Structures are given as structure tokens and as C-alpha cells.
């Protein structure tokens, strides 16, 4: 089934108070905490890695939805597994040679594998990973160029979401970038069920209102 999951992107949080920011988002109704791991190479920004995930895990039991914007995702599997990550979503652009091995190792560390694609990457590239005998369990469609929060949603990406939903009725389809009250309906009607939101939620006076509005849109 495709249940709605609202994931707060902690990239928009106060990193100096990560544990309390995470707790605040969960109290506001977030299902997942979206953790953007960037290596300063795959994308022009550097954020957090396994040590921060390990520290956060000591403060929360929440689902840690890790989005790996890194050139060598395989190097992160063991450390993130040990750190207590829940989901491990790697980029198809960074795993053309080794996605089978990656999926297998992610699962062996008790994490849930997902694949992400950048706006310029055709949707067909993820089909083999979804249709494999040992498949990914989620596809993350980037709706901005990865690297930074607070960018403008790209409506053209909704064709990818529609195509995926038609082909795979029960797949978890996540959208990430520029999601908020003015864009959620486009994403939900295209068929996305996992919604990442950073700046729209953290910038709101009442994050709980934004989260429940987005959940209702997906449920409709
Ligand atoms: C972009 C990240 C996103 C980002 C979303 O590289 O993958 O998760 O934090 O932020 P907003 O919701 O502000 O676009
Ligand atoms: Zn992300």
C-alpha cells in the first residue's frame, strides 16, 4: 500500500540543536526525519555523515530517511548501518556500476534501500533497480537540483512521478525539493506518497499545520 509519509528535511533545522529540532518535528506530526548526507563532491555542499546520524539515533527512535548525495555510496553503507540509519537512498548517477551490490549490502545492514535521480536523469534509468529480484523499495524523484534547501519546485518532474505510479502501483515514491502548501497538490495528484519538506516546514510559524495540510493532500 502507499501510505503517506511526511519527512522533515533536517537540512533546514538548526544543526547545533539537532536533537531538539528532531523532537519538535516529530511532535508536529512528521513521520520521518529526512537526513541529507552530502560529500562536497557529488553536490557542491558538505553536510553531515554517519557520526551525526549516530549521535541523533541516541535521542530518537524515529525513522531516519537518509538521502546520500555522495560519489561513493558503497563506502557509507557499513558506517550508516552501524550508526542506526533506517533508509539508505543512493543516487542512480553514482551507482551505475554497482547498484546490485549496494542494494544487497544495504539490506544486509538492516536498512531499506532507495534510489534517487537528479532532474536531468531520465526515469528509465531506475526501472532495472525497481524490477530487480532484489529491488529498491523507494524511488526519490528530485524536484530541485540537489545540494541546497529553499529552492523552487520543478513541476516538469511530475511526469516522472506519474510514469512511475502508473507502472508501479504500490511503490513508495518520494519527492524532494520545494514542497509546501503551493506545490503539494501537484506532487500528490501525480502519485507521490512520501513528501520531503524542509524550508516550508521550518519556516512556518506552525509547522504542524503545514504537515497536516500535506498529509491530507496525499490522502485525497
Ligand atoms: C536538496 C535536499 C532536500 C532539501 C529540501 O538537495 O535533498 O532534502 O533539504 O529542502 P526544501 O524543502 O527547502 O526544498
Ligand atoms: Zn534530500
TrEMBL record:
Signal peptide: none
InterPro entries tied to this protein: Aldolase_TIM, Ribul_P_3_epim, Ribul_P_3_epim-like, RibuloseP-bd_barrel
Keywords noted in UniProt: Carbohydrate metabolism, Isomerase, Metal-binding
Catalytic activity: D-ribulose 5-phosphate = D-xylulose 5-phosphate
Documented EC number(s): 5.1.3.1
Coiled-coil region list: none
NCBIfam families (alphabetical): PRK05581.1-4 (NF004076), rpe (TIGR01163)
This protein's name: Ribulose-phosphate 3-epimerase
Organism listed in the record: Hevea brasiliensis (Para rubber tree)
Lineage: Eukaryota, Viridiplantae, Streptophyta, Embryophyta, Tracheophyta
Amino acid at each position: 500500500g502507499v501510505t503517506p509519509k511526511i519527512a522533515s528535511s533536517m537540512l533546514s533545522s538548526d544543526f547545533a540543536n539537532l536533537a531538539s529540532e528532531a523532537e519538535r518535528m516529530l511532535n508536529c506530526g512528521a513521520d520521518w526525519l529526512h537526513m541529507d548526507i552530502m560529500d562536497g563532491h557529488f553536490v557542491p555542499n558538505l553536510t553531515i555523515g554517519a557520526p551525526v546520524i549516530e549521535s541523533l539515533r541516541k535521542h530518537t527512535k524515529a525513522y531516519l530517511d537518509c538521502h546520500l548525495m555522495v560519489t561513493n555510496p558503497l563506502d557509507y553503507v557499513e558506517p550508516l548501518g552501524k550508526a542506526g540509519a533506517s533508509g539508505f537512498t543512493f543516487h542512480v548517477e553514482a551507482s551505475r556500476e554497482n547498484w546490485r551490490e549496494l542494494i544487497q549490502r544495504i539490506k544486509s545492514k538492516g536498512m531499506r534501500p532507495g534510489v534517487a535521480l537528479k532532474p536531468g536523469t531520465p526515469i528509465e534509468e531506475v526501472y532495472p533497480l525497481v524490477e530487480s529480484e532484489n529491488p529498491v523499495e523507494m524511488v526519490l524523484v528530485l524536484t530541485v537540483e540537489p545540494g541546497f534547501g529553499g529552492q523552487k519546485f520543478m513541476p516538469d518532474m511530475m511526469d516522472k512521478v506519474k510514469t512511475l505510479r502508473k507502472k508501479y502501483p504500490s511503490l513508495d515514491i518520494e519527492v524532494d525539493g520545494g514542497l509546501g502548501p503551493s506545490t503539494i497538490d501537484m506532487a500528490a495528484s501525480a502519485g507521490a506518497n512520501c513528501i520531503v519538506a524542509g524550508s516550508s516546514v521550518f519556516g512556518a510559524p506552525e509547522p504542524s499545520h503545514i504537515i497536516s495540510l500535506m498529509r491530507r493532500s496525499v490522502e485525497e
